[in-house]
Amino acid sequence: MTRQIAVVAFAQSDHRRTTDELSEVEMLMPVLHEVLARTGLRTADIGFTCSGSSDYLAGRAFSFTMTLDGVGAWPPISESHVEMDGAFALYEAWSKLLTGDADTALVYAYGKSSPGSLRDVLTRQLDPYYLAPLWPDSVALAALQAQALIDAGDTDEPALAAIGARSRAAATANPHAQLRGPVPQGDHLVRPLRTGDCPPIGDGAAAVILAAGDRARQLCARPAWIRGLDHRIEPHSLGARDLTDSPSARLAAERAGAFERLVDTAELHAPFSSQEVVLRKALRLGEEVVVNPSGGALAANPVMAAGLIRIGEAAARIHRGACDRALAHATSGPCLQQNLVAVLEGDPR
C-alpha cells in the first residue's frame, strides 16, 4: 500500500436488550457526536461516509436512509452503504481513502434486533432453494458446527463453557457490554450449546473515523494503522464446507499480513463459543495472545455492528497504549461463512 490509513477514533453505544423508546436515528446520533468530538471534526470535514445495517432487522426497505438524518446530508455528502456488518463498510471506506479521493472517512453501523425474532430473520441469509425453506435457525446451525467440533475432538462442553465465562468476566471492565460478570451457563438451548454459549440479543451502534497519513497524526496521538485488511467467503452451501475449519478466515489473515509477525491482542467476532475454537485454529492464535479483552460478541452482539466494534475495540487499545499489534476479525452469515481480518499497529513507543 502506498498510502497509510489509520483508525483515529472509535465510539459505541451502551448495548441493551431493548431500546423500544429510541428509533435507529436516536440510538445512533449520540455515537456519531461522540466519535466526531474525539477528533474535533465536523460532518463537513468528513470526505466519505459509509454505513452498515440490515433492512431485514428494520422490516422496511432502504431503512438506512433514515440514519442519514443523524449524519447530516446537507450540504451534499459523499456517502455509501453496505447491507452487511459495519466492518465491511469500513473495508469500502478504507479502499476509498487508498485511492486518494478522500483523506477522512466516517464509518458507522447499527442494529436493533429486539423488535423481532432474530433467529428467524437470520434464515434469510441461507440458500433460498435448499436451506431457507427448511427454516434452520442461526442457533441450530451453530449447534451443528459445535457438535462437529466435539466429534472431531477439538473441544467439549466444559471447554465451551470456559470460553463463555472468560468472555463475560473480561466484559466486567467494559461499560458498554450487555452481559458482564459471572453469567450462568444455563440450560441447553440447542444441544450441545447452552444459553451461555450464545450471544445476547440486543440493540446497539458503533462508529469509527479513518484518516490518511499526516492527517491521522493530527487527529490522534497514537493512530491505529491498518497494516492489512482482507475478506474472503466460504461456499454458500453448508454441505460443501468443513464446519470445523475456516479456510476463508485463514486466507484473509494471510493476505492481511497477520502471520508475518505475532499479534499481542485479537478481537474475534465469534458470536458462539464454538466459533472461537474454529477461529483460534484458523488464525493461529496461541495462548500468549489476549483474545477478546472487551468480552467480544458473547458479551454484546448488536447485529450489523458487532464486527465493526471488534475493529474499534482493537484500535482503542492501540490508542491508549494497551497493545502494539492487534488482529481484528468480523464475520457474517451462518457458521462463519464470510470473514474479514484487519491487522492494526501503533507507532513504536
Strand order of the largest sheet: 3-2-4-7-1-8-12-11-9-10
Number of beta-strand segments: 12
Alpha plus pi helix count: 11
* Overall mean pLDDT: 95
Q: What's a concise summary of this model?
A:
This protein is α/β, with parallel strands linked by helices and 349 residues long.
Q: Explain this structure to me?
A:
The chain is an alpha/beta fold and 349 residues long. 33% of the residues lie in helices and 21% in strands. The protein is built from 11 helices and 12 strands. A hairpin with a 2-residue loop joins strand 5 and strand 6 (193-194). Helix 4 (86-98) packs across helix 11 (306-319). The longest helix is centred in the first third of the chain and has 16 residues, at 24-39. The mean pLDDT is 95.
Record the SSE blueprint:
Blueprint: E1 5-12, H1 24-39, E2 48-52, H2 55-58, H3 64-71, E3 79-82, H4 86-98, E4 104-112, H5 118-121, H6 138-151, H7 157-170, E5 188-190, E6 193-194, E7 203-212, H8 213-219, E8 224-233, H9 247-256, E9 265-267, H10 273-282, E10 290-291, H11 306-319, E11 325-332, E12 338-345
Parallel strand pairs: 2-3, 2-4, 9-10, 9-11
Antiparallel strand pairs: 1-7, 1-8, 4-7, 5-6, 8-12, 11-12
Helix pairs in contact: 1-3, 4-11, 6-10, 7-10
List keywords for this structure.
11 helices, 12 strands, alpha/beta, two-stranded antiparallel sheet
